[in-house]
Amino acid sequence: MELRINRRALVGLGVAAxxxxxxxxxxxxxxxxxxxxxxxxxxxxxxxxxxxxxxxFVSPDKPDTVTLLANWIPFEEPQGGPNFYFFDTKSRxxxxxxxxxxxxxxxxxxxxxRDEDKRGNTTFLYNNGPVTSLNDQNLLxxxxxxxxxxxxxxxxxxxxxxxxxxxxxxxxxxxxxxxLRSQAITNIPGGKTFAGQSDEAFFLDLRVFDLxxxxxxxxxxxxxxxxxxxxxxGLQVAAKDLALKADAKRNPVIGVWSTTDKWGPSGYKxxxxxxxxLVNELVVPAGLKDAFNALPPEKDADVPAVVKRxxxxxxxxxxxxxxxxxxxxxxxxxxxxxxxxxxAKGNGPIMADLNSQTLNKDAGKLRPAEMMRLNMSxxxxxxxxxxxxxAGDLQGFPNGRRLSDxxxxxxxxxxxxxAVSGKLIPALTDKVDQNDKPFGTTFPYIPLPxxxxxNQR
Length: 457
Known about the structure:
Elements: H1 7-13, E1 51-58, E2 65-76, E3 91-98, E4 107-117, E5 141-151, E6 154-163, H2 177-183, E7 185-188, E8 191-199, H3 211-217, E9 229-238, E10 253-264, E11 267-274, H4 279-282, H5 286-292, H6 304-311, H7 314-323, H8 333-341, E12 372-375, H9 407-421
Antiparallel strand pairs: 1-2, 2-9, 3-4, 3-10, 4-5, 5-6, 7-8, 8-9, 10-11, 10-12
């Protein structure tokens, strides 16, 4: 596949706009439907179902495979016992793949969980001695899971009795947490899976919500997620197992998103949806946040306000009113291309073949929808650049998302007008350029969870 992108196009590819919707005919929702880092009113009270981030990238050490990671439960304080963190046993956790461009899931990987609680009325402790293995009798609370692969042709159980890596209680309780992590990695046909606690790998300064970094960019430079943990579900699977017609060479582009379905009086209902990072937090108005997360991607194009929020993003207007950075002229058709159709020559102003499903030779008619899109044919970058495609690193965001991609800086620059002007604004940055912990070199790559209090001195 030919990948020729000029400088102006590279800048444009780094844009992150977000979608919202105001058509209540399509956005009716029940209480509790929301998603991501506390960005919606309902989900802030239901963290176990709160999906915080999705990552999708060609595995750096196994380039014939793709790694998919999805995180839940934001702001896990490591010392948050005695009832530490765990998945909801009344929910289904999903990573979904669209490989033909119709915005409907062609493949769903689905986890369900069950508790194994031996504490009873005898103790309040999570463990009553050092835990040296996942099956250690000293571990009094553990979770087990079932993982299924669901396609149009049927459902296959990949794992029937997997064990979740426990919360990292501390060095006395878990003197070698790395061993527990390793034991929680389970082989599946053609790949691996993992479920358990991890470091919160998203690095940024969350003071963006204080009038965009204090109204004068004075509130930057602090990784406000440092020290917190999350719960991760991960997959490493052969690219062919994700591709349309199992042919990753002819059909290399996939769309990826995650959801949580929670059980209630009327059955399972979607309570989270997450594709691209920072979708709901920075653009969707508070009154519509819960509703947006109940909407499946296939419905996005039916809601006029969805397209409007892409072509006229609120964040650009806020940057103009607070910092005097003139908002680019609308409509922002480049953002429609990036977030609703993927990037390919002929479907928008960015003249590059990157990650639209129209690049799949066997794809049908494209259905515009918000999701993370990954071109699996682009090999891993030897020295990844944190600015991804914006800096000419075509394997980076927004072509999927790696753990090291600095999505906040990429998004701020592009929304401020870099996609139109081709020029960056050096001062417009949160000054948090990397995670506080290094990433691993093998699956699941995300760092081990912290066992030290966030407010340590």
